[in-house]
Amino acid sequence: MTADAFLAARPRVRADVVVGPSLVRGAARIHLLKDPRTGSRLEVGPKEHFLITRLDGTRTLAEIGSEYTGEFGTRLGEAQWGQMLGLLHSRSLLDGGPTPATSPAAAPQDRPSGILAGRTRLVADAPALMDRLHCATAPVRRPVTLTVLTALTVALLAAVAVQAGTLWRQTGETAGRPVVLLAVGCVLWCSLALHELAHGLFARAWGGRATEIGLRWVLGATYLYCRVEDVQFLGSRARKVATACAGAFANLLFLVPFYPVWALLPSDAQARPALGALLLLGTVCAIANLLPLPPLDGYKALGHAVGVTGLADGSRTFVALAARAAFRRGPGLAAYPPRLRLVYGGFALLTAVQSVALLVAAGAALHAVLPDDLAALSWWLPPAALAAVLLLWALGVLGRSLRARRQEAAPATPSATAPRRRPVTPPIDPAGHHSRAGTGPGPIPDPSAHARKGEMSAPHSETQVTQGHAPSETVVALDGVTKRYGAVTALDGVGLDVRRGEFFGILGPNGAGKTTLVEIVEGLREADSGTVTVLGRSPWPRDTALLARIGVQTQASAFFARLTAGEHLRTVAALYGMDEATARTALERVGLTDKENARVDHLSGGQRQRLAVATALLHEPELIFLDEPTAALDPEARRELWGLLRSLRSEGRTIICTTHYLDEAEALCDRVAIIARGRVVALDTPRNLIRSLAAPARLLLPAAGLSPEAALALEGVDRATVEGDELVIETTAVNRVLTALGDLVDIESVTVRTATLEDAYLSLTGTGKEHLR
């Protein structure tokens, strides 16, 4: 298939695929997709969402690519389209593709049930039960009826507030009668069933699905639960907030009939204190469940309201980054726009205030209940209980971390008989069909074959394409890393993190500390202070289990010089316990098959560089370190290696790369860290670093065609100067100035240059003479 025919195709995403709303996780924006036939879900980034929503069968790939260029400033080539369409095809989301399996997605796996904690299902077919309840409660869910019920719950809250003193005294009386208090607790426990069913009913009314109804127990406490899926696909935020608050609404509605009975009973009736305790405790439980504290319903409602998923985790990360930034450590808060800073910072402050208020309220309640001789302890018991809970939680996290490390260590050594292989995506045509020899359109070209055209860098993808790993999982983390060589400080409190599947670039002038930083992460050097973790383990002292999972290409790579390239790779493969075919595959990946029988010391500098990369990739590592991988390569070989690196990233591998080619970093890297004088002076995506400059565009045209004075007279021109035989116009209104220039000069003679990563680099470091374009 020719390139023109490829870009003229009009693929279409299946019409029944549900596109969810835009959400925020951490500092990143994500979008959700759902396949209603299989129940599977897909999480994509803004760029992928932009493309998927335009694959409607009415526009060609070329037309969508033009829209993409206008939105994101980069071009899509066949390689990137191949990755995107391959992903959609593998998920059976393209129209005309293979029919997806209709079996529902597997429910999330819980820990095995035990005596202290566990769960059991109470309903064999929860969706069917919810469907019947949905039909039975249809009259109740009418707007008029819901308005009346809401008014009743508000009236109940007002009445309980007015009678709070009387209800409190009656609750105290009931506390002295354990049997009656137990009966009140049983009634409230039954209201939990209505609480959970209300969540399911509200979600079911708007297209959600209750997948499981059962009983949980933790340390002797039992409660009912209703697992609801697809809450994020309910539509408006109001629906999601209403679903989260439905449980508390049901609890209050459950109490409404008890209030008139309590109010009508004589003051000396024996049942009146019990009803008073039921009203007060039930109301407090319902209102407390609306507090924005995880895992309460109020926390979920707040997350839905602000459009943020994982609000607590994001807030903790934000506060940690803010604290480190206060001491000039870590990447800072540049990735967080003002709204997110307000959301995460406000939630952290709200959580702190709520926690203090709850501790004070608990202390006051205990002070009123406990005998006088124990009243002094009432203010200390809540903080002590909270500290105990936090300690148990920390121990649990530590235990899970240790178990995970042991599990990771077990399969770390490569098998001598079963080397790891790259996953292969079946070739497809733009319509989503499997390609067959001799029939139909040809397969999408291999991404590496088209990367040499330099069409664009691969779009930053947050799509979950590797199973078992979340896209935000941190595989390399540095905190306060310092390294000195005598009086010279190579690294000064460096802190950064690299996420799984990310292409991470490290830039900086000569002597900035780049190589020292990478060697510390690789385990070749020991940091003087700070912490370093790689794939959940410490790289120092040398960890042989970790070495089997990483691949390293250094500036001065060592070879078996008197061996041929093929013999060298076969020797390294044998050390990893892999067969000889692995060496041949590695040579093919870097384009050195014609040099298989050439001695290493007879290879050119560029060929030796490619052999070093092949050696690093030989054992199929999940984390790859590349130190200036394209140095000494000619432009065509550089582009070919770019294609290889893009394909490695598409397989889910994590790549950390140092380079002096700023165009290479801009084309390949998801994020870059710029290091100067041993510190991280910037850490962000190349696009965000360029945007932060707010630099004007420069229009270049022959100086003979227009004078600087005439250019300055045009609306939108900020500056006009003559440099050699060219007139250079600086402007922040490119389209307006180009329109005006079209009436004065030949528009084809005008060259537009916008800010690049090199401009951002020079602005941040004040140097960069050794960097090339």
Commentary on this structure:
- With 773 residues, the chain is of the alpha+beta class.
- It folds into five domains: 113 residues; 192 residues, no CATH class; 62 residues, no CATH class; 214 residues, Rossmann fold (3-Layer(aba) Sandwich); 59 residues, Alpha-Beta Plaits, CATH 3.30.70.
- It is built from 27 helices and 19 strands.
- It has a six-stranded mixed β-sheet, sandwiched between helices. It has a four-stranded antiparallel β-sheet with strand order 17-18-16-19. Strands 1-2-3 form a three-stranded antiparallel β-sheet.
- Strand 1 and strand 2 form a beta hairpin.
- The two termini are 33 Å apart.
User: What is the CATH class name of the largest domain?
Assistant: Alpha Beta
Mean pLDDT: 78
Q: Count every helix, treating DSSP H or I runs of 4 or more residues as helices.
A: 27
Helix content: 40-55%
Q: So, the CATH homologous superfamily of the largest domain? A: P-loop containing nucleotide triphosphate hydrolases
**C-alpha termini separation:** 33 Å
Give the overall form: globular
How many domain modules?
Answer: 5
* Radius of gyration from CA coordinates: 32 Å
Q: Summarize the main sheet.
A: 6 strands, mixed
Helix/strand/pairing category: alpha+beta
Report low-confidence residues grouped into runs of 5 or more: 102-109, 411-471, 768-773
Strand order of the largest sheet: 11-12-13-9-14-15
Q: Could you tell me the number of beta strands?
A: 19
Strand content: 15-25%
- Looking at the structure, the CATH topology of the largest domain is Rossmann fold
The CATH architecture of the largest domain is 3-Layer(aba) Sandwich
